[in-house]
Sequence to fold (190 residues):
Amino acid sequence: MVLDLHPHWWFYGSRLLWMLVGILAGFVVQSSAPGSLRTVLGYFVLGLVIVLGARLVTALVRWRTTYFVVTSQRLIYRQGILARGGVEIPLDRVNNVNFSQTILERLLGVGDLMVESGGADGQQSFSDVAQPEKVQNIIHSTIRSSRAARGEMGGPLVGIADELERLEALRDRGTLSDAEFEAQKRNLLG
Fold:
């Protein structure tokens, strides 16, 4: 097992935010509404907070039962509480891994992964992945390690040269700083 993740906390973040808004609304109603209206609005807000709380608990349970796993052989995604569903993609069938993040998602460290593979499904999208760029790099390095172990990359020197070219491209795009590039280069070269 190379990586074992639950979705990022943002998976249930919007429901948590609405729950806090509901509680805040309850305090505002209780402090500012006149006597008889306060009781009616208080019951309404209480019902709203209960519904929002149930949605939050459901999201927390869904978060707890959702897994994104990368092993040396495959990529595995499982989700569900009572009814379960999942996807397994052999790493030797993965053609490309892309990620996307909005500005807010980048600030929060969350994003979406798109895995393209040879097979019937073709593309799989995984949302609310924590640190998607790092996960993308881990998947790519696991694929390279797997291929090198099977002798498909032309030996370790070709693998290192390919990795150095990839790191240099990341540095040129501004994804890696010069210091990060040098650290990764030292790790590769031993």
Observations:
- The radius of gyration is 23 Å.
